[in-house]
Input
Amino acid sequence: MKPPPFDYHAPRSVGEALETLADVGEHGKVLAGGQSLIPMLNMRLAAPGHLVDINRLTELATLDVEPGGVRVGALARHAQVERSEEVAAAQPLLRQALRLVAHPVIRNRGTVVGSLVHADPAAELPAVLAVLGGSVRLARPGTVRDVPAAGFFTGILESAAEPGELAVSAFFPLLPPRSGTAFREVARRHGDYALAGVAALVGLDDDLRITTARVACVSVGPAPVLVDVTEACGHRPPASADWASAARAVQERTAPEADIHATADYRRHLTGVLAQQALRDAAREALDA
Amino acid sequence: MTTKLFGEPVRRREDPRLLTGQGRYLDDLGGDALAAAFVRSPHAHARIRDIDVSAAIDVDGLVAIYTWEDLPALLAQPLPLLIPHPALTHGRTAHPLARDVVRHVGEPVVMVVARDRYLAEDACALIRVDYEILKPVVGVEEAAQSAQLVHDDVPGNVGAHLVQEVPSAAGLGAREAIDAAPHTLAFRLDIERSASMPLEGRGVYARWDADDRSLRVYTSTQTSTSVRMAIAAKLGLPLPKVEVIAPDVGGGFGVKIVHPWPEEVLVPWAAILLGREIKWAEDRREHFVSSAHERAQVQSVRVGFDDDGRVLGLEVNILHDHGAYTPYGIIVPIITSTQLLGPYKIGAYRVEFSSIYTNTVQVTPYRGAGRPQAVFCMERTMDHIAAHLGADRTAVREVNFIRPDEFPYDQGLIFQDGRPLIYDSGDYPESLRMLKELIGWDSFPEAKARAAAEGRRIGIGIGCYVEGTGVGPYEGGHVQITSDGRVHVSTGLTSQGQGHETVFAQIAAAELGVPLERVSVVTGDTRRFGYAVGTFASRAAVMSGNAIALACRKVKEKALRIAADALEAAPGDLEIVDGEVRVLGAPGASIPLATVAVLSNPLRYAFDEEAARATQFAGTPAFDRPPVEEGQEPGLEGRDYYSPLRSTFASGMHAAIVETDPLTAEIRILRYAVVHDCGNLINPMIVEGQIHGGVAQGVGGALYERMVYDEHGQLLNASFMDFLMPYATEIPLVETAHLQTPSPLNPLGIKGAGEAGVIPVSAVIASAIEDAEGIGIDRMPISPSELFDLRRAATGRSTSET
Output
């Protein structure tokens, strides 16, 4: 379990990093927190010719609460985002989800943007980006583009980030007034990738009736499965909402697969249970908001 | 014993070293050594057509590449079958490097030596092995019926077949007794594979001294003395020219008692051949696919019993999956067969096992060594009987217990050491009483009803076991008191973190009457002690502990004799307190042990003032006696061995309360209680630590861990990401209570404690889940997904029945 040979690059500026990535093209891989990449290298599942280590680019270790949302730089660690009170106040779903990401030592090193680009359908953060309708900012020399969540996750471990591009930040929109969020999941062990998990967002109008209800599900498709259940909940106050019907609507949209830890049926069942729980939790938060 | 050290919760003296990064594990050694890596079979069953190393030759830093054809005659033979048994009619072992056929994924085919491990792995990746893929045999029931053979010359894939039968007191065979019983039940049980999975994998580091023609090998083993003999034999070296040392070892749990591993003979061989230091440190993936697993069995049970639940006859048929090879013989299924009886008097018993070859990693003992399967079988049987009769589960156990006045109790079987299965001591009714009190067994129905009213499901379970510990044939101890008053203890068996340095020091300090700080302990170093068996079967405290105590008594006797001369007193009037020999009732008349050590060694040359006291012109010599009298030896040291008549039998009972989530089917252990009897306790804190660790591994086996092979013989979860060893977050607080029924078999009255915690856990958790869910549990481990399936099946069944 030692990686095959690679060329190591440690650029000192974003500009230099972008130039390097452009040079090495499809043979390059960005090293940020390394919590997924290093094991893949050690198991020789990945063999990039060039590693571009961005850990010296402190200009990317940013965490900004902007008027419209939270912008997380490519070198912001999970722990930094999780512990920020300002972020928790602006967008509570980030902390709710990050507490479920692996273990503290992994969160000390792993990065939010790295997790998004890794695009593991079992991971929490892609679901967060999906349910909030956030975006990822991709850069190459001279150009920058923002890719919305809906188009970012293109398959299992596949994202819209192209060879030569560096994901420099991710943007998580703020919650509208009278909205709440929740993240529920079931994992085999504390901190494991979830067998199933649901990120939920519920918004209410001034009469405290549901106007927005949507979820993003993990581990039940090749990418986060985003389901709008506003209709299924009915335009009603949370206390009389049809959560069971909403949960069924979620289940119908999932296409889980069996693996050694759980059958597809069980994952679908869990997704329904968790969707209902997460929607109720989010609605409760919305009422308190 | 003159001090209270024996039985005290002395803090582990190895911990400051191990917890601050000062431990020296195998891979901490040999920083400049060349690295070995192996090309291992990616196929479960294949014939090697050709090995092409040409692309690897150019790798920078490559030193050597070896295949089976390169091996000298002795090494080219199959590895030893360590424990032959008449019933193992078709024992087979692997070659150090595969010859012609590979029989499991992970079998070593080519050894590469390079400047470092990175380069060695680069070279491995460039070696092309051309395989003719053969049909693999996977799954023990499939293998037992398959026409496909793992070994061409082993018909039916049956490596061993053994029947043991004990008739009832009335002379009935088990089948007759069952047929004649008022009630009979038959069912099938299933336990999946797990593995020892120590945090430190295997590893070997060899140094050849070409000038001295001697070899030193460090290996992460549970038996350095036997590895030494194996290396000497396999490499044709004189035994005195081979030293083997087990450095700090990061866990063994059974897998490291297997020896010699291919790497343990190949690395020293290459080190001699190349005249270079070579090290191989196993990585996690290698450990999953090329060390050993355990547990997998399918059991068929028939039992006959009376209205009280008294078992009149029990018949068990076991299919045991021993993987591709049998280097450790059939110890595991023998232990299952014999330890199945637990604390019970079974009217008539018949047990039959077939040990079956499959194209999977070999099966050798893992902590518990066949007992978790045995206890699962017997305790599921007890629960089945209770359910059938509508009786309390503890009442059914109670009625079958061996009574305290029936010891020694002969179960009529032959145990794993080839000696009679005779229990030495125990008090099972008291143990059960303590457990029921600890867990609150009698008041649980109310708690369950309260939980149900809140929409929660909880259940309680119990499991009892008896564990043969401290098996022979022997261990030894050497104790030397030097002229600085220090006590040096050594024993040949090895340590893997159990706390031997602490408990052996406690024994020596207590026996000799010296402060604990003056005692140092060395284990597993053949330079210090050459005769030993190894650390397994919960035997270190019983075997080496007693041997060290006996050696101390020899030293003490000698010390008192020398001191008696010096103090002009009778040896019987002397005592040793705090490192000083004192005359009883005569304050001031004393001599330090350090001085006794000086006097014990008559000298010609002085090198310090202490030594000067023992030189030939000092003192008043007795001219009628030689300085070293006949039958005596210089020095204040002693060596002794402990070789028991039979094993000691520790016992215990566990209970757990679990909660199952009605919606998600998640399973949570709310409470876990253990009553444990290992005879006299040397150090209760260390015993509790052993129990906690054992329970943690048991929880792993019950709820998380399994080796998932697909039909091609590929291990699908060969990493810690998918092999779910539980974290601390999954382990409940373990509540313990100790019962002490001393063993009459050894001087210290102790029994083994190393494996106890793990043994009944699957049985206990199954019992508790069954109680919570009202659904029969007949296979372990169980996951939430499987519980979900069982619920659906049960709902479907009750729907179709109504």
